[in-house]
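ARCHIVE RECORD
Type: protein–small molecule complex
Small molecule: magnesium ion
Source of inputs: curated submission
Record status: active
Notes field left blank by submitter.
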Amino acid sequence: MRANVQQPHAPQDAQPILWVRDLQAHYRTSHFGVRRGVKAVDGVSFAVRRGEIYGLAGESSSGKTTLIKSIAGAIRPPLEIVGGSVEFAFLPGYGGLHRAPPVDVARIRWRHLSYIMQGSMNVLNPVRRVESAFVDFAYPHIGGSRKQFEQQVVAHLARVRLDPSVLAAFPHELSGGMRQRATLALATICRPDFIIADEPTTALDVVVQKEVLGMIRSIQRETGSSVLFVTHDMGVHAHITDRLAIMYAGRLVEEAATAEIFRNPLHPYTRHLISSLPRIGDDTPREGLGGSPPNLADPPPGCRFHPRCPLATEICKREVPAMLEADTGHRVACFAVNQGARA
Amino acid sequence: MAILLRDLLRHSPEFRIGAVLLAFVLLLSVLASFSPYPPESVYVVPPDVPPSLTYWFGTTSRGQDVFWQLSFAIRNTLLFGCTVALISRLFALVIGLISGYKGGWIDRALMSVNDTFIVIPLLPILVLFYFVMRDRISWLMLALIMACFGWAYDARLIRSVVMSLKAREFTQTSLFSGMSTRQILTEEHLPYVMPIVFSTTMNNMVWSIGLEVTLAVLGFTDINTPTIGGMIYWANQHTAMVAGIWWWIAFPTITVVMAFIGLFLLALSANAYIDPRSRLWSVGEAS
Amino acid sequence: MSGYLAYVGRRLGQFLLVVFIGVNIAYVVTHASPIDPVEQSISAVTSFGNTSPGAIEQMRNSLRELYGLSGTPVEQYLLFWKRILRADFGPSMSAFPTPVGTLIGRALPWTAGLLAVSTIVAWGLGNLLGGLAGYYRQSRGLKLMGVIAMGLHPIPYYILAMLLLIVFGFLWPVLPISGGSAMNLPQTWTPEFVLSVLQHAILPALSLILIGMGSWFLGMRSLVSNVLAEDFVVYAELAGVRSWRILTSYVMRNALVPQVTGLAMSLGGIFNGAVITEKVFGYPGLGSLLVDAVYAGDYGLVLGVTTISILGVSIGVLAIDLLYPLLDPRVKVS
Ligand SMILES: Nc1ncnc2c1ncn2[C@@H]1O[C@H](COP(=O)(O)OP(=O)(O)OP(=O)(O)O)[C@@H](O)[C@H]1O
Ligand code: SF4
Ligand SMILES: [Mg+2]
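STRUCTURE (tokenized, with ligand):
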């Protein structure tokens, strides 16, 4: 996989299109008096540039979905934004979709910002035909005559190699891969500036997965969109993303160009992730990481990785390491790495 | 159990209201044991006296004290509901557990019969039954007949719970550890099914009491055992409403409506407690 | 298409099973009596006046067949079915010599009309309001409606009908409280007659609608709050689909599916309600016919109304079942 890492396509100095600053999002539940709070996203900051594919990696339940739901404004109880801000270049001045007036949000949705949900098997209305989803989602933005619109949809479906007949089908009549591609077509037909994709290929077999990834790449290049691409699969990240952020227990721990992360991982957790990737012609047994991921309802103090970290020291148990630039464009949150780093 | 009740009392307004309503009704039915008059005797007090300090709920045209009569009536009516509910729970549990666990053709056959019982209009059949039995119809007989019809809806609910339990891992483990079907059903599944059984019990009582009142009002039951429906039947026989003896009808009606709403609210809050999806909303509304 | 046909086949099978079991229950119930019901019924009728001996003999024969008392047990059972399949319940004893079939035929349109209108109104309105209440959870008015529905839904039909009767019959007498139309009007399609029929139907229909609406309202409200959490609804919201469209085509449209099944399952219960409501308001339908037949000791009529009710309700259920695939495209494959 290592050899496969792509060179970045986006110009290094492109303007950001999304800024996330110190975002905190918690789940708060109360059921007949039993209260529970899960700090699923706890102080995350990063920026995504125009025209790049920005990857977000991390093990299951590290808070990836929660983070991008908060960014996409998909916030409903028990999820709450507790602090921080989210700003898109096309919706300036509000600090988050959840704070902007509904009219403005409705205007940018799908036109500027589209979203591919995790487990997108069930995102299509089961009792209506696929075509109605295109009409509901995209027609208000694209406009024109219905005939023209239909032609445009058919042409776009051809791009993800779907036959026009799927439009007349009900979702349950399509295979998993077909549904996935239909969802992809649905999310890209308006040529949005920003696409959020949450595990869009995880449920697919390897061949279809490759194909869908290729489609995302080519559509992204064609439209110049930015993509925030989430998956726990490092192989997929190596294949498609330009820059990559690693998430651990609700926080970012490292961020750099994808190639740089694979070549020179700095954070102990990232190193573990990279070294546990299977490599052809290398049979040395992988070292396992002791312990288990922290419970986000009651996370450990200080660096959340410290109970499992081979390099942990006293300070790690007390204080939270900040995300600091260790090298140009390479940020890490770790006391051991950052000792001599620039603030 | 105590914790459960405390949680429900503290956090569910439906449960609080339901519990208070039912408490009144139960208190009244317990008082029946202290009645100065036996329930069947007539002309023991002056007839047609409006509510007063001596006769709190007034007296009937048959010379009975409405208060004491009502306490017998509500006791018998509740007892009737409990009997039907208990017996029909047995049917519902057995059919639901077997159907959900066995699956296949047994499930299909049982559910066909089950759906038939859900669909058939019961009142005409009960009326036919009364027509054939006439005066030989007894309280217990009616309860048995209604229990034979009142299980179907809940058997379906129980079946769906068992089907989802079956898909879970622990059934597989128990299966490999050599437990028999009966053991798996009674030891592994029953504890998960019991909460639903409790909430359906309340709904079943609402249903059976409603039917009993209906039949009794028409005179199609054993009208000599005092029940709520029976009281209204006698009031109608004496055209109490036209004669202005409103208390003869009003108090039984209020009491039974309190019982209905109380039972229904308890079932509702029990369901909310069981269903994890409703948790979301309790948060959404609080904030 | 073949999927739909298989589905239709299954539903037809279920329909036949309901009718079969229903009629058998009626058979068993009629045979539960320890005394000879025929002689009892005949003596009850003949004590009223002079009926000709020939008529009594005809009555006795048809009763013996209906009760299934002539011939071997197998013959008895088959004879019972023959009568029922030909809808031949003999002459009515309380309205001798009018055939039971004629009496039922007269009453049927009243019940069918009352039930159809009140069920459709209750179901439609209850689902609409319940859907809105599930979607706009903060609305004060809809919350209040929920409280009212909770209070109305568990009350049995008889009690509510009686309350309406008291309110509109004694306290504020503005509506006719008894009968199907004004006595003095001939039953022809004149505007006065139609108006009178509508006026007389208001109270019975209202009792059925209020209770029915309560339960559809509560059911729909909780279904909607579950559907709201489904991926396809969240996704449509994220796509900026207009909220009215989401409410109708996504949320309500999906929540309606189980409500249609629910309607089929509760037809029997609704029919029970209609029986007693008709009796309270003296409405000239099957319910009143049934109750009066019991008072008059008219066995053929009681049995006739019972079997026709079972058949009618099953046909209603079958009709809903056959329309169901229109609403849920998934049944065709499963
Ligand atoms: N609706 C919810 N209510 C309460 N807690 C939740 C809810 N959804 C998620 N969580 C919790 O938030 C944490 C983060 O979940 P999230 O779905 O963001 O993880 P993820 O990184 O996307 O995982 P995966 O790779 O499995 O998709 C988990 O601990 C999870 O238990
Ligand atoms: S901060 Fe400390 S505990 Fe955390 S990763 Fe670095 S060395 Fe390990
Ligand atoms: Mg996720």
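CURATOR ANNOTATION: Residues 268 and 313 of chain C are 6 Å apart (CA to CA).
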